Amino acid sequence: MSRMTGRSWAYVGAGLAGTVSVGANVSHSFVPPAGAPATWAPHAGAVIGSVFWPLAVVVSLEIMTRIDWPEGWRWIALRWLGLAPVSVGAAIVSYRHMSGLLTFYGEDVITATIGPLVVDGLMVLASGALLVAPSARRAARRRPAPAPVQAPVQASVAAPPPVPAPSVPAPADRPVVAAPEAAAGVPADLHAVGRQVAAELAEKDVPLTRKALVTGLRERGIPVGTTRATELLAELKAAA
Asked: Which of 4, 115, 121, 141 is deepest in the core (most CB within 10 A)?
């Protein structure tokens, strides 16, 4: 057998107290008034009406607590000035019926006074326990939603300035000759530059070829075509 939860015990308490309260009120309707004849019997309306009082206590409590009442003084007045007298009046009548029944059964004054409070108190307590979860849900709905958490804005880090490439000075044995075409718009003196390239290649024991000549001229900023390089190579070799 699985263990009973607190909510299950609340249902048991509400059912037990409600059954005892209804039964006591119905039984009280069969108590004959003082001086009643032996043939006395309760009216059917009195028996049916005796069931109303304990049920009115439960129903009024449910209405007061289960409904999500709007805000405002008008609704508060309706809730407490309208329903509260109903529940209090029904509870007083139900209490007097149970207390009168206990007195008729010959119970002492203390038992007749406290006994009905135990029954009605258990019924109210059990009904209130059943309202804990719905009340918590209503409170959660009324609670304002938390503000969305914004992601922290990362500070933009400025990119480091570009580091200029170090300038490499031209070798001392390689004078840089500017291209005359770019400066003055006149034909370049390829012979003079070509002789410098040829002398440099000779110092490095590199054969004077057209490819080596073209590379040397381009390193000095003088681009030449294949035909002109071939003619210059022939003139340099003839002069050597």
From this structure: 115
Structure token digits, residue 86: 């109903």
Between CA 94 and CA 25 the distance in angstroms is: 7
111/106 Cα distance (integer angstroms): 10
Identify whether the C-beta of residue 121 lies closer than 8 Å to the C-beta of residue 95. no
Q: What is the dihedral of CA 57, 61, 67, 69, to 10 degrees?
A: 110
Select from 48, 113, 128, 120 the least CA-distant residue to 89. 120
Residues with Cβ < 8 Å from 4, sequence gap 6 or more? 12
Alpha helices, H only, 33-166: 44-66, 73-77, 84-104, 109-130, 132-142
Alpha carbon distance 130, 65 (integer Å):
10
DSSP 8-state class, residue 83: I
pTM: 0.48
| DSSP structure class, residue 137 | H
**Burial of 120: CB neighbours in 10 Å, binned 0-12, 13-18, 19+:** buried
How would you label 24-54 residue by residue, b for 16+ Cβ within 10 Å and e otherwise? bbbbbbeeeeeeeeeeeeeeeeebeebeebb
Q: Which two tokens stand for residue 159?
A: 């990119």
Residue with more model confidence, 67 or 111 = 111
Of 17-26, 31-40, 180-189, the least confident:
180-189
CA pair distance 27, 166, nearest whole angstrom: 112
What one-letter code names the amino acid at 4?
M
Per-domain boundaries in the chain: 6-32+41-142, 180-239
